[in-house]
Write a structure and sequence with these properties.
By secondary structure, the chain is an alpha+beta fold. It is built from 3 helices and 4 strands; from the N terminus they run αααββββ. The protein is rod-shaped and about 105 Å long.
């Protein structure tokens, strides 16, 4: 009987020594979970910005390929790229090249941009991230260019 009472008393003491350990674990884990969440947000913002820049390069190449002259093609590509990225990134002037601007040729557009990490300074991601994208679009074989 005495041993049974001693065993119960020892079990109560063991439970009391664990008391509050869950609160300490939660307090220690909250900053880690918060930092992980911010890293996921930063990754999502990077993927979204990269997709926007690649889409702008693709659309600029396509717009340039529909023009009849090289000057009009450069203007159209610059207009499309700046319209799509005006509020998302700071980009260098569009790099416009190609094999030749004549029927059957190819128009190539390259964008070099920097995307700001504003709002992510809590996890040490300040400044900006460079993102580059390029696209090519063929000129129609059966059309005139000038």
């Amino acid at each position: 009987m005495i041993t049974l009472l001693a065993a119960r008393a020892a079990a109560r003491r063991d439970r009391r020594s664990d008391r509050g350990s869950m609160a300490v674990e939660v307090v220690l884990m909250i900053p880690v979970l918060f930092a992980f969440t911010l890293l996921v947000v930063a990754g999502g913002r990077y993927v979204s910005a990269r997709a926007d820049i690649e889409a702008a390069a693709r659309d600029a190449a396509r717009a340039a390929s529909l023009e009849r002259s090289l000057d009009a093609a450069v203007q159209a590509a610059n207009r499309v790229a700046s319209d799509q990225l005006s509020d998302r990134a700071q980009c260098q002037p569009l790099d416009f090249s190609g094999t030749r601007f004549e029927a059957g040729g190819v128009v190539q557009v390259s964008l070099d941009c920097r995307v700001s990490n504003d709002g992510l300074g809590l996890i040490g991601l300040g400044g900006s991230v460079p993102i580059s994208a390029g696209a090519a679009s063929p000129l129609d074989t059966y059309r005139r260019t000038g």
